[in-house]
């Protein structure tokens, strides 16, 4: 899970201990101190600027430091008292040109005239077109801190993507039209370079995996699954493929990747189910079928959540009960297993989608709160559908019936209640895949990511 870094700058004309006519300092240092502490408590790393800024020179010096500090994802400009906006906006504009985020925070209260300083800056930045978020709220208010931390997390994700590399092993899988990418668009929107490798290199790497490496992997298998899979050529190839895939991703310095799976690799060597399950478990952003949009969604959820991410088919939608079954073709991080369906081994089992077969994972996702989301394109423009979701386990006496409904009971199942208008969600969904992330705080962070990157959010 990420830890965003924010620069914290207090601004105001009446500073340096200057008091109002009642004898009280205009800037309340206790409020400033509590505000910084609240951000740290929310998981942000705070880099303070010691001087309260008011003049053009002070603003230029402070924002230049924040601009050139690669650690910083966002600057929090905290209203200490009123200010002459014209003295600050040029330096803020220059800083914002880097693509880093700007947030104005005004702590309520009549004493000190903080709202005046906050609103004049907000209006000034709107006037000259500097993207920013304006937050008015107390340091002790959970919703206020969530708004700030979510925006910082979104800014961090945006910065992570900048100058990153997405790898693709093989080409488009299963004839997908709704997951393809325009490399120029990805560079323009996100700063992401797309690099490709043929799956033959992956097969060679898998065959080069040593018996010692396979043996060394056994303790982790037993920890995650309670046992090791049966020893045969199909299962061994699945393990080899995972170990090789991790090696190549690290060797090529891919920040995230997608893999064709089939046709090709799943027919010639092994289905990718187990390898993808383990890469998700390891915290890699990934997808199958050469689906670039799902891969980016998985990467975002992975970075934002404390739990690994599950992506699978929206296999059944019960609109009346707002229930969705997410069933992946054997790929799911094993640590997401719940009480009713512990992680176990199975087989890919569909010869028309990978004749070579392969080891896969079976489980039922554990209960929790989270989101369903997926990035997509409509007429070449990015949008992201995002909805809150509750993951549940069916009653114990009905679980076998529910597993057999799809005809493939041995693939991983996630039972989800979507908190949205189901018709609007389905109308806007752009693929058969759903990406499931655990954590109620993912919802505002994804919305903020859309804002800072220019993606249209769809909130059904």
Characterise the protein shown here.
The protein has 460 residues and is α/β, with parallel strands linked by helices. It has 2 domains: 157 residues, Rossmann fold (3-Layer(aba) Sandwich), CATH 3.40.50.10940; 294 residues, 3-Layer(aba) Sandwich (L-fucose Isomerase, Chain A, domain 2). The protein is built from 15 helices and 18 strands. The strands form 4 sheets. Strands 10-11-16-15-14-17 form a 6-stranded antiparallel beta barrel. Helix 2 packs parallel to helix 3 and helix 7 packs across helix 9. The two termini are 27 Å apart. The relative contact order is 0.10. Pfam families: AraA_central. This is L-arabinose isomerase central domain-containing protein. Keywords: Carbohydrate metabolism, Isomerase.
Most strands sheet: 6 strands, antiparallel, barrel
Radius of gyration, in Å, reads 25 Å
Number of helices: 15
Total individual domains: 2
Distance between the termini: 27 Å
Mean pLDDT: 94
Helical residues, percent = 25-40%
Low-confidence stretches: none
Instruction: Examine the secondary-structure arrangement and name the CATH architecture of the largest domain.
Output: 3-Layer(aba) Sandwich
Oligomer description = single chain
Strand order of the main beta sheet, please?
A: 10-11-16-15-14-17
Structural class determined from secondary elements: alpha/beta
Tell the overall outline.
elongated
CATH third-tier fold name of the largest domain: L-fucose Isomerase, Chain A, domain 2
Number of strands: 18
Q: Provide the β-strand percentage band.
A: 15-25%
């Amino acid at each position: 899970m990420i830890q965003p870094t924010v620069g914290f700058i207090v601004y105001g004309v009446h500073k340096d201990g200057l008091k109002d006519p009642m004898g009280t300092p205009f800037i309340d240092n206790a409020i400033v101190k509590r505000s910084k502490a609240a951000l740290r408590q929310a998981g942000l790393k705070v880099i303070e600027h010691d001087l309260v800024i008011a003049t053009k020179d002070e603003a230029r010096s402070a924002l230049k430091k924040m601009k050139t500090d690669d650690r910083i994802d966002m600057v929090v400009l905290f209203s200490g008292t009123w200010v002459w906006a014209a003295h600050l906006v040029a330096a803020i504009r220059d800083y914002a040109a880097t693509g880093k985020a700007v947030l104005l925070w005004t702590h309520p209260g009549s004493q000190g005239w903080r709202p005046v300083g906050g609103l004049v800056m907000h209006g000034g930045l709107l006037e000259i077109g500097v993207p920013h978020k304006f937050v008015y709220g107390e340091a002790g208010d959970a919703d206020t801190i969530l708004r700030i931390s979510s925006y910082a997390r979104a800014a961090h994700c945006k910065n992570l993507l900048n100058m990153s590399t997405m790898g693709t092993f093989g080409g488009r899988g299963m004839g997908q039209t709704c997951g393809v990418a325009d490399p120029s668009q990805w560079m323009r929107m996100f700063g992401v370079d797309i690099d490709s490798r043929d799956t033959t290199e992956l097969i060679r790497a898998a065959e080069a995996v040593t018996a010692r490496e396979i043996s060394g992997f056994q303790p982790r298998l037993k920890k995650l699954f309670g046992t090791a899979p049966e020893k045969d050529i199909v299962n061994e190839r699945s393990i080899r493929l995972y170990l090789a895939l991790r090696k190549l991703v690290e060797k090529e310095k891919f920040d995230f990747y997608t893999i064709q799976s089939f046709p090709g690799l799943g027919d010639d060597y092994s289905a990718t189910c187990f390898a993808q399950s383990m890469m998700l478990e390891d915290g890699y952003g990934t997808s199958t079928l050469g689906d670039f949009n799902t891969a980016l969604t998985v990467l975002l959820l992975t970075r934002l959540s404390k739990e690994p991410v599950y992506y699978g088919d929206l296999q059944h939608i019960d609109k009346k009960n707002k229930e969705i079954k997410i069933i992946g073709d054997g790929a799911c991080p094993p640590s997401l297993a719940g009480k009713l369906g512990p992680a176990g081994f199975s087989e890919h089992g569909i010869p028309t989608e990978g004749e070579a077969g392969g080891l896969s994972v079976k489980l039922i996702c554990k209960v929790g709160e989270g989101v369903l989301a997926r990035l997509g394109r409509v007429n070449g423009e990015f949008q992201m559908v995002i909805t809150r979701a509750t993951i549940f386990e069916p009653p114990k006496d009905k679980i076998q019936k529910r597993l057999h409904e799809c005809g493939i009971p041995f693939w991983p199942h996630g039972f989800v209640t979507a908190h949205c208008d189901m018709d609007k969600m389905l109308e806007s969904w752009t693929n058969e895949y759903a990406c499931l992330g655990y954590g109620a705080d993912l919802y505002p962070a994804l919305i903020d990511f859309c804002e800072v990157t220019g993606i249209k959010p769809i909130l059904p």
